[in-house]
């Protein structure tokens, strides 16, 4: 499943919609990181290596389960 199909599926999930309304900007950042990463054909592990962090941190960022620091976002942005 590509990321576009994945997000179409989520757009119909009531829990996801509620969370998106509450935490929109954090989800937007995660969505954009996921989009850029998949366009490059990178795994989460590859992005983590390039950003100098752990794969789990990338996973949390993309899923919206973290409140990333500006420094962490800069590392990810520079890697991308």
Short description:
The chain has 80 residues and is an all-alpha fold. The protein has 5 helices and no strands. The chain is 78% helix and 0% strand.
Regions with little confidence, pLDDT below 50 for 5+ residues: none
Average predicted confidence as pLDDT: 90
Q: How much helix, percentage-wise, in residues? A: over 70%
Shape: globular
- Portion of residues in beta strands equals under 5%
Class computed from helices, strands and strand pairing = mainly alpha
Q: Give me the strand/helix succession.
A: HHHHH
Helix segment count? 5
Please tell me about this protein's structure.
The chain is mostly helical and 80 residues long. Helix content is 78%, strand content 0%. It contains five helices and no strands. The longest helix is centred in the middle third of the chain and has 27 residues, at 14-40. It starts with a helix and ends with a helix.
Layout of helices and strands, plus pairs?
Blueprint: H1 3-10, H2 14-40, H3 44-51, H4 55-63, H5 70-79
What are its keywords?
mainly alpha; globular; 80 residues
